[in-house]
Amino acid sequence: QVQLVESGGGLVEPGGSLRLSCVVSGLTVSNYAMTWVRQAPQKEGLEWIADIDRFGRITSYGDSAKGRFTISRDNAKNTMYLQMDRLKPEDTAVYYCTSWLGVVVSGRGGLRDYDYRGQGTQVTVST
Question: For the segment 83-103, what is each residue's pLDDT rounded down to a tens digit?
Fold first, then answer.
C-alpha cells in the first residue's frame, strides 16, 4: 500500500520558517517525480508550489514559491522536503505532497494528474 505522509506544519509568525517533510512508503521513490501543492482556506482548487525530478537534480517553482521556498529530496530516506522561509500570511494553507511518473523541466510546471497524494499538513502564518 502506497503512503505519503506529510509533517512539519504548524503555526508560525510572518517572516518565519518551516520545513515540511513527506515520507513515502510502498513504492520505489526514485522512480517518481514529486511535487508540493497547497490548498488555501476558502479557495477552491490546488495551487502548484514546486516540482523535483526523481533524482533530485531538477527543480521547478511556482511564482509564489520562487526565492522563498526550496524543494529537495533524499531517496535513501524515502523523503521529500519543502524548506519555507520568509513566510507570509497568504502562505496559510494545507500542504500536500504528491508523486507522479514523468519528467520535470526547470522553469516549467503546473498542476497535473498525480499518481499519489498525501493527507496534508496545515501551515498557518499569523501573528
Answer: 999 999 999 999 999 999 999
